[in-house]
Amino acid sequence: MPRLQLGDWINSGVNWLRDNLSWLFDFISSVVQGMYDGLNTVLSGPEPLLFAGILALLAWWLRGLLPAVLAFLGFALIDSIELWGEAMNTLALVLVAGVITIVFAVPLGIWASRNRAVSAVIRPVLDFMQTMPAFVYLIPGIFFFGLGVVPGVVATVIFSMPPGVRMTELGIRQVDAELVEAADAFGTHPRRTLLRVQLPLALPTIMAGVNQVIMLALSMVVIAGMVGAEGLGSTVFQAISSVDVAMGFEGGIAVVILAMYLDRMTSALNQRVSPLARRALAKEKAKALSGLKVLHWRPATSVAMVGVVVLALVAGGMSMFGSDEKGPEVSANVGKGQSVNIGYINWDEGVASTFLWKELLEQRGFKPKVQSYDVGALYTGMAAGNIDFETDSWLPTTHASYWAKYKSKLENLGSWYGPTSLEVAVPSYVKGVKTLEDLEKKSSTFKKKIVGIEPGAGEMKLMQDKVMPGYGLNKNFSLVKGSTAAMLSQLDRSYAKKEPIAVTLWSPHWAYSKYDLVKLKDPKGAFGKGDRIDSLARKGFSKDNPQVAKWIKDFKLDEKQLTSLEAAIQDAGKGKEQEGVRAWLKKNPSLVNKLAPVPGGEQKGKDAGAAPMIGYFPWDEDIATTYLWKNVLERRGYKPEIKQYDVGSMFTGMSTGQVDVEFDGWLPVAQKQYWDRYKKNLVDVGSWYDKTSLEIAVPSYVKDVKSLADLKGKSGTFGGKIVGIEPGTGEMKLLKGQVLKQYGLDKEYKVSDGSSPAMLAELERSYAKKEPVAVVLWTPHWAYSKYKLTKLADPKQAFGASNQLHTLANKSFPKKFPEFNGWLKKWHMTEKELASLEASIQDAGKGNEEKGVQKWMDAHPGIVDKMAPVAS
Fold it and tell me: Which parts of the chain span the membrane according to its record (predicted)?
């Protein structure tokens, strides 16, 4: 019978949905992520024990004093094992998934209960949803929503929905038919029958369904940890992949406590919302023994809610005012708080290099987030843009299949270690086994098995596809799939008992220093040549983070450095990887600046601590250069202050010493009158940009207007106005005082005063509508690259000769800031540099000038030393 290509059809369908409904998946992702982030912020904000008190108070209200005490003790235990944050992440995930599930499940159950055709259609769908292995839901979830919380929530919703639908339908169908008939007989509308008769009586069954939804959602959370969902699932997954008994037990006990609390509370909630359950509760209280009444007493709803509100307000106040936590030590704030997502495979060299870069990036002012993934999920996440980079790709052999599949969506940032080797290893006490060919003859010695690692690892694929068939091992050996930690654990047990064992290993690995092992030779070259360890990143990472990308491209560790780093992390213990990295860096203090150099960032200027007052105009070139110098000066230890002025105020302030310096003096023409008036109290530090011009510009679609003379007689075309900028600028004074008069335009046109942003906004509106407009402009300006404009020729040279951009300062500036003055004298920018700096600031947007400058500086890593050199 020919093979039915069902899997290929499903794969094609998933690809079609991803390509054509990406807008829908993006919307769902935004909604779900927003719900999770909001709820997680609320749950994680308060002090742990105070929030535990709130949860205990809810338990007291729902179940009584003893459950409340036990609930508090359980959550206190979670806090004591340092898993509070993960527990709150998990609780947020469960609640979000539970709410979404109930919103869909209850209406579907009601519909199915009132329509047997709908019930017949839904039943097999629910069977499919409930019996399909939960892991399978994660695969399309990754394709549609990437890695993280959202695919975990979506998979959880699908997995936990069936009992909600089934129990709702069952509850309504079980309502006594005579009661429904009685309601109908009295003329009750079907909707009121549903709301007033069926739902209240079915509520206990529906609430049981809600309880099951919550429980299934919690069971799915652990699986969601495999795709990067935060919380206890990630902790348990990491413990499983590293066979860490302590971590696994602690994560497991935290899950159990959450499960018991949610189970008991959702079960007890039925007693508060169901009329039948409230009657049963009243009978239970009446039968309680007099001596034990205190254990059965529960606060009234109003009292409980007041208590919750008071505790919540106290918790909010403590989290707002009481936090004294210090962030990581920042030695050079290059990142300015920018987040970076780093993924890693739970292999020793991957853990070591990842947490090393986490520490380095934190010291450079970034906010890195690290997350462990399976190999396949790691590559998929990078290709989708959910992960920025990772440092443990074994190429060109081990991870060849993943690289071939995703290389069009990835960047290779270079290798940092090599060559490596893949091999099968056996203890040295196993005699007569030196090569893979020898292994084939001794299958009984090794109980016909080779202990492997993660099934998705490239080495395992090579073993299955090439090595075992190449040496005939597939006939007599089975390859045991598990994890690296499981393999090492089995190796340790067998080695202690002197039992024969064959394991998949690689070099470098600390196991070779701990155990006396033999690397089996590979005479046929089935494993291929030695790999190198490469760092890979998502497409576009180098453009978005040029400084980090450059650091990683230059990253190198030798065998001694890598093995000593791995040893330091091993000594620190699980969960303390970064502490191990910090201990290692203390022994290698020069490596921070070597691995993540900040050009000039560690060098302070001779006048470090000085605080020059820098003024600027709201013009693009002045904003760009002012924020650029602010960044450079801060790196040199200065404390600059910047403030915006109009032209007249700027020159007045500089002449009186209120402003020390500014970088946008248009001389010798545009600002000549201000210079002539105040020059006795000012100093011209020098020009940093040449070949400027002042002009009037019109869109290119305005025909027959090529010069200022062509404007004459066409005031009707332009509404009788020329759109100007700030009235105090030299260009505006020149235009009104000289240019219009020389061309006979002063009686025909009115120059509107305003601002540069207002002029540009008017230009953009008119350009979009193809309306004629004449605006005051100058060169250089980014508007000429954004719009097709005509610079009106000035044959009479009424605007005067070309200007230069000068740095002007108060006359005391050279003595007050001699080092800064020296830098400014030698400073010069090209047209390309200035234009790219202005563009970077424009892209960053208003209020984000410093980010725009930082991004530009990252793309010009030597700019600080060039602008502000400090002798070493």
Answer: 49-78, 90-114, 134-159, 201-227, 239-262, 303-322
Q: Which residues pair with 769 in a beta bridge?
A: none
Please give the structure tokens belonging to residue 235: 């902790």
Q: What CATH number corresponds to the domain at position 381?
A: 3.40.190.100
Pairing between strand 750-752 and 721-723?
Answer: parallel
- How far is 115 from 190, CA to CA, in rounded Å? 13
Alpha carbons 201 and 172: distance in angstroms, whole number: 8
| Residue whose structure tokens are 């936090």 | 323
Domain assignment of residue 37, yes or no:
yes
Q: Is the pLDDT of residue 539 over 50?
A: yes
| Final residue of a structural domain among 791, 825, 846 | 791
Query: pLDDT, tens digit, for every residue of 768-801?
Result: 999 999 999 988 787 887 789 999 999 998 988 7
- Which pLDDT value is given to residue 321? 44
User: Taking the chain, what is the end-to-end CA distance rounded to the nearest angstrom?
Assistant: 79
Q: What is the DSSP letter of 409?
A: G
Provide the token pair at 97: 């998934």
CB 761 within 8 A of CB 846: no
Closest CA to 394 of 353, 423, 434, 422: 422
**What are the backbone angles phi and psi of residue 50, rounded to the nearest 5°?**
-70, -40
What is the pLDDT averaged over residues 461-488?
Answer: 89
Any bridge partners for residue 505, and if so which? 423
Which two structure tokens, joined as six digits, stand for 728?
């105090």
DSSP per-residue letters across 248-280: HHHHHHHHHHHHHHHHHHHHHHHHHH-HHHHHH
Residues 142 and 241 in one domain: yes
- The answer, yes or no, to whether residue 450 has pLDDT greater than 90, is yes
* pLDDT confidence tier of residue 411, bands split at 50, 70 and 90: very high
Domain co-membership, 715 together with 826: no
pLDDT higher than threshold 90 for residue 855: no
pLDDT for 243-289, tens place per residue?
A: 566 777 887 888 888 888 888 888 777 666 555 555 555 555 555 54
For helices 149-173 and 134-145, the axis angle rounded to 10 degrees is 130
Same domain, 728 and 756: yes
Write out the E strands in 137-239: none
Reading the block at residue 515, the tokens are 């155990």
- Residues 348 and 217 placed together within one structural domain of the fold: no
Asked if residue 65 belongs to a domain, the reply is no
What are the helix and strand counts (H, E) for the chain?
42, 20
Count of alpha carbons within 13 angstroms of residue 564, beta-carbon side:
12
Give the Å distances, CA to CA, from 674 to 120, 623, 801: 87, 20, 17
The string of DSSP codes covering 748-771 is T-EEEP--HHHHHHHHHHHHHHT-
Write out pLDDT tens, residues 188-234: 788 888 877 788 888 888 888 888 888 888 877 767 776 667 777 77
Count: domains in the chain: 4
Q: Would 859 be classed as within a structural domain? A: yes
Per-residue tokens: 414 = 């270079």
In this structure, of 214-223, 296-305, 399-408, 626-635, the range with the lowest mean pLDDT score is 296-305
pLDDT of residue 311: 57
Cβ(477)–Cβ(450) under 8 Å?
yes
CA angle (48, 50, 55) in 5-degree steps: 90
Q: In this structure, are 162 and 221 located in the same domain? A: yes
Cα separation, 530 vs 556, in Å, equals 17
Residue 618 main-chain phi, psi, to 5 deg: -80, 45
Q: Is residue 63 included in any domain, yes or no?
A: no
Residue 838 lies in domain:
613-690+804-867
> CA-to-CA distance for 839 and 835, rounded, in angstroms?
6
Q: According to DSSP H, which parts of 588-729 are helical?
A: 591-595, 620-635, 647-656, 672-678
Pick from 498, 500, 495: nearest CA to 446: 500
Burial of 358 from C-beta contacts in 10 A (0-12 / 13-18 / 19+): buried
Burial 825-838 (b: 16+ CB within 10 A, else e): eebebeeebbbebb
